[in-house]
Amino acid sequence: MAIPTKKRKTENLNGVPGRDADSTCIISSGTRLEGNLFSRESIRMDGAIEGDLRCERKLVLGSQGRIIGNVEVGEAVIMGRITGNVRVKGLLHLTESGAITGDVQSGTLHIEQGATFEGNSKIVTGS
To answer: In which domain, by residue range, is 56 found?
Structure first.
């Protein structure tokens, strides 16, 4: 006879309860990646990447974070710098310290005063 096991509750970095599979990949300041990066889960990037970044969930690019390459994510909060094209299924939030040099396609675009954006933007709903 099998002994029932209790499912353990987990929390992501924001303190929100989630499934065991919900997690955030953290790339800390001082870390530099060369090459493409893919994640099914969210990414918090305070380091730098030279290559394309794909993430099925949320990208949070900290103020010290740098990306040179194309970005494709579910949603994004950009406080750092991206040089490359950005494609976001949902909300793209470019904060006052954020900068994007490249074309942007998103479901919703929020640009704070003080942010830098150089490129073309296209809003695509229902994708």
So the answer is: 24-117
Q: Model confidence over 33-87: pLDDT tens digits?
A: 999 999 999 999 999 999 999 999 999 999 999 999 999 999 999 999 999 999 9
Report how far residue 107's alpha carbon sits from residue 74's, in angstroms, rounded to the nearest whole number: 10
Q: Identify which of 72, 87, 75, 88 has the alpha carbon closest to the alpha carbon of residue 36.
A: 72
Number of domains in the chain: 1
Only one residue has tokens 């490129």, namely 119
Return the half-sphere exposure (C-beta side, CA atoms, 13 A cut-off) of residue 21. 4
pLDDT, averaged across the chain: 87
Q: How many CA atoms lie within 13 A of 106 on its CB side?
A: 23
Say what the pTM is. 0.81
Judge whether 55 lies within some domain: yes
